[in-house]
Each structure stands twice: as structure tokens, then as C-alpha cells.
Specification:
Layout lengths: L28 H21 L9 H12 L9 E2 H11 L5 H12 L9 E4 L16 E4 L1 H7 L9 E3 L6 E3 L8 H5 L1 E4 L4 E4 L4 H13 L5 H4 L13 E3 L2 H9 L1 E7 L1 E6 L5 E7 L6 H13 L6 E6 L9 E5 L5 H11 L3 E7 L1 E4 L2 E4 L2 H41 L2 H10 L3 H12 L3 H9 L2 H6 L2 H23 L1 H19 L6 E2 L1
């Protein structure tokens, strides 16, 4: 195509600002490509691939949890079709295709992917070897643990921003009552960077968080006394763990996960290797297939049979039957080397902090969460204080009016309009504008049934609440103590014993 051409006659799209109608302008291709790629890279980094260090969620996960909360899909309610959830999320918050949304929803429901699942799924949500059923066949609701992520979002605890078309508001981060990024981990490939974070034990992470709140100058080594290493939902044994300390210090390091096995007699005459736990994201079918391959290629000798007895209830149970005369330990070492029974896990802890990607060590990850919770608790306390003060103002007005309820009714009946009635009430009972308006807006039946004793009790409770919240907001130490108390409560309610052994 020529660089320049005459303007076509008839209809055209019209000139853009600063351009002549119908004129084709020469541009620098390299500059245009650079700008376009940069815009794309920013979009991928901030809107898709990397989690926020505060709540540990990517935008799609955050939107799913928020929308499910908005739909009222709490743990005490019934499940609804996953397709309905996906449709609501896609239509209102995340217009990037139903497949991506459903994949994210499924992962949050899988107990072999998440150390603390956030969605309570009903139906076939897949296994390590097979994908889930279609969204029209599965059902979902928020898990109990997820309520600690979304609770209090309506109390001005977090900032909201416009959705993709500007018609709705969505949270830019969730309140998140526990360090979700550490507990559940994250993976993501952005442009020029990637993240790969291992899941951890909730109880251990909570203990480290509390210690850091009390000891802000704590070292990584001190925190590792509470968090010795990752804790995978599928168990396994952590070996070559020197890289864990590096990962916790710098945000980058590697270690290996081994299958948990038991050497025992599988028949009256033969010994065998029984695989009970596998490395993270490795399924028994893959193991059986790979062992069969190395036996066929004669890389491993001494194996007579492999039987996969795994099921969804009892977990992994792969029985490797051995020939007589072979040492099980020698065969096992070869299997670790030649099959996915031993896998390397590389930690690359990259997450968004203040809107920028950063590589984070253990202490920084915990500190970002603590700072976030301090802000959440502060904003929540201010909101609740303001709400209590607004209610106290109305109660005080009612207490003034309730003394002579007949006079209130007489004033209202004798006034020409609402404005005159309000002015008369303000003058007679020395009320504020909000108090008089509230009394006028109340149904008469409520006004007459009000008890002075009930109002007195409510007044005392409100004053007590306001005093407690005022004291809390004045003390930084008190807010930190509150954060520590609340994260401790989450650990107490949802903590489970460690599953992955550390060699």
C-alpha cells in the first residue's frame, strides 16, 4: 500500500484529533511495536498474571470470590451451578472468556491444588490425572475459609474501582484475614517475568505473622523457626532443602519433593514399594506410565508388576511389586532419578506491591500482609465508629421525643406540611435536623411501641462501642494486637497439621 493516498469520497470515519480527514500518516513501525508491546505487557502483568501480595489473588480469582459473595453464595446456603457463577463474573467483572474463569474457579475448589480451598465444590472438579466436568454439571459456593477473605469488604476496608465498562464497582483488593499468598501459593507467567510460589501450612504462617507483629526487626532465620518450609496439599518429602533458605531470604530458590513410600511385603513371597504420596501436581497415572516406560527400556530392573489402587477417598496408593533378589532401596533410588517420583520445585516469589512487581522474601511477604491488615482494621474501626455515632444521634433524639410522645403526635398532626412539622419538633425538643427527620420518617406504630428502657440500653451499648473504637484507633499497639488476635483466630479455626515432611 502506498504511503499516502487521496481521501476517499463519500463516507469516512472522520478525522482523529490533530489529523486531517482521510490522510494516511507515516509512522515508525519499531516505535509503534514498542509502545503496543509495552501496553500489552502492562496489561498482562497487572490484570492477569501476577497476584497482589496483600490478598494473594490475581484479578480473576478476586472477582470470582467477590461476585460469589455478592450473590450470597455463603457456606450456609445451597450450591448453585458453576455456569451461573461464571456467567455473573464474566458479564459483570471479567470479560475474558468463560474458560479462564471456570479454570480459576476449579483450582480454588481442588484440595490437591490449594492448601486451604476457598470454594466448596459439588460434583466432579477433576483429579491430578483428569480434568473437571463441564461447568453445567458442577456446583459451587464459597468455602468457610473464603468468608475470612471477603468479610468486611462492605465496611470501607478496601478501595473499590470501576469494572471494565464503568457501570459497577469492584474491590481492588480483598480484606484477606490470613496471608493467602503464602498459604495457597500462586503461579503465573507474565511478560518478562513469572511467579511460582509454594503453598504453606496455615498454622505455621500464622505463628510467623504473630511473631513478626511483636518483633518487627525479626530476621528471616528467626521466622524460619515457625515456617521451616513449604507444605504441599499432596504431602511428600522435601529434600535438598538448602534452596528454601535462599528463597525465603531473596525470593528465589529451589528444592526437591520426593514421593512418600513404604517398603513392605505385597504378597506372601514378594516385597514391594507402596507409594502413598506424590510430588505436587503429579498424578498416579503419570507415575505408573513412566515406571512402565523405564522398565520397558531396561533402565530399571527388578520390577515385576505395577498396580494403581488410588481412589478419591483413600488417596494415592501405587503398588510396585519387586522380583526376588533385588534390593528395594536400590530400585527406589533409580525411580527417584528416572521418574517424576522426585521433582524439583523452583520458588520465584514475584508479586505486586503498591502496584509494582517485586521479588519478595518471607519477611517482606508477611510484612506486606501485616500492613494491609493494619489498614483494614483501622478503616473498619473508623467505619463502625461513624456508624455507631450516627445511630447514637438518632437514639438521643428518640429519647428526647419519647418523654412526651403525645406532644410529638400532636405537633405532627397540627403541622401544615413535613417541613413545618420538622421545624416544630426541632424547636420544641431541641433536636438536630437528622433527628427530627428520622422521627418524621418513622411509622407511627414504631414510635408508639418504643420503650425508654430499650433506648436507654441501646444508648449505653453505643457509647461503650464508640469509646472502645476510639481507644483502639488512638493506639497503634492496640491495632496491631487486634490484627494478631484476628489472624490467630483464623489459624485456630482452619489450621491443619503439616503434610509435607522435611528431610
Amino acid at each position: 500500500m502506498a504511503a499516502k493516498t487521496k481521501a476517499t469520497k463519500g463516507k469516512n470515519s472522520g478525522p482523529k484529533p490533530g489529523e486531517e480527514p482521510g490522510k494516511i500518516v507515516d509512522i515508525d513501525v519499531s516505535s509503534e511495536m514498542s509502545d503496543s508491546f509495552l501496553e500489552y505487557a502492562y496489561s498482562v502483568i497487572y490484570s492477569r498474571a501476577l497476584p497482589d501480595a496483600r490478598d494473594g489473588l490475581k484479578p480473576v480469582h478476586r472477582r470470582i470470590l467477590h461476585q460469589m459473595s455478592d450473590m450470597g453464595l455463603r457456606p450456609d446456603r445451597g450450591h448453585v451451578k458453576s455456569a451461573r457463577v461464571v456467567g455473573e463474573v464474566m458479564g459483570k467483572l471479567h470479560p475474558h472468556g468463560d474458560v479462564a474463569i471456570y479454570d480459576a474457579l476449579v483450582r480454588m475448589a481442588q484440595n490437591f491444588s490449594m492448601r486451604l480451598p476457598l470454594i466448596d465444590g459439588h460434583g466432579n472438579f477433576g483429579s491430578l490425572d483428569a480434568g473437571p466436568a463441564a461447568m453445567r454439571y458442577t456446583e459451587a459456593r464459597l468455602a468457610t475459609a473464603a468468608m475470612t477473605m471477603v468479610a468486611e469488604a462492605d465496611e470501607n476496608t478496601v478501595d473499590f474501582g470501576p469494572n471494565y465498562d464503568g457501570q459497577l464497582a469492584e474491590p481492588l483488593v480483598l480484606p484477606a484475614a490470613f496471608p493467602n499468598l503464602l498459604v495457597n501459593g500462586a503461579t503465573g507467567i507474565a511478560v518478562g517475568m513469572a511467579t511460582n510460589m509454594a503453598p504453606h501450612n496455615l498454622g505455621e504462617v500464622v505463628a510467623a505473622t504473630k511473631y513478626l507483629i511483636d518483633n518487627p526487626k525479626a530476621t528471616t532465620k528467626q521466622l524460619m523457626k515457625f515456617v521451616p518450609g513449604p507444605d504441599f496439599p499432596t504431602g511428600g518429602s522435601l529434600v535438598d532443602i538448602e534452596g528454601i533458605a535462599d528463597a525465603y531470604e531473596t525470593g528465589k530458590g529451589a528444592f526437591k519433593i520426593r514421593a512418600t513410600v513404604e517398603i513392605a511385603k505385597v504378597t506372601s513371597r514378594k516385597q514391594g514399594i507402596i507409594v502413598k504420596e506424590l510430588p505436587y501436581n503429579v498424578g498416579p497415572e503419570k507415575i505408573v506410565e513412566k515406571i512402565a516406560e523405564v522398565v520397558k527400556n531396561k533402565k530399571v530392573q527388578g520390577i515385576s508388576d505395577i498396580v494403581d489402587l488410588s481412589d478419591g477417598k483413600t488417596g494415592t496408593n501405587v503398588v510396585i511389586e519387586l522380583k526376588n533378589g533385588y534390593e528395594p532401596e536400590e530400585i527406589l533410588e533409580k525411580l527417584y532419578k528416572l521418574t517424576p517420583m522426585e521433582q524439583q520445585f523452583s520458588i520465584n516469589a514475584v508479586a505486586l506491591v503498591n502496584g509494582k512487581p517485586q521479588q519478595l522474601g518471607l519477611k517482606t511477604l508477611l510484612q506486606v500482609f501485616i500492613d494491609h491488615r493494619i489498614e483494614v482494621v483501622t478503616r473498619r474501626s473508623e467505619f463502625r465508629k461513624g456508624k455507631a455515632e450516627a445511630r447514637l444521634l438518632l437514639v438521643d433524639g428518640l429519647l428526647k421525643a419519647i418523654i412526651d410522645i403525645d406532644k410529638v403526635i400532636k405537633i405532627i398532626r397540627g403541622s401544615e406540611d413535613a417541613a413545618a412539622a420538622k421545624d416544630a419538633l426541632i424547636k420544641t425538643f431541641k433536636l438536630k435536623d437528622e433527628q427530627a427527620t428520622y422521627i418524621l420518617d418513622m411509622p407511627l406504630r414504631r414510635l408508639t411501641k418504643m420503650s425508654k428502657l430499650e433506648l436507654d440500653t441501646e444508648q449505653k451499648e453505643l457509647k461503650k462501642t464508640i469509646a472502645e473504637l476510639t481507644a483502639l484507633l488512638k493506639s497503634e499497639d492496640a491495632i496491631k494486637a487486634k490484627v494478631s488476635e484476628e489472624v490467630s483466630e483464623v489459624g485456630k479455626n482452619f489450621g491443619t497439621p503439616r503434610r509435607s515432611k522435611i528431610a
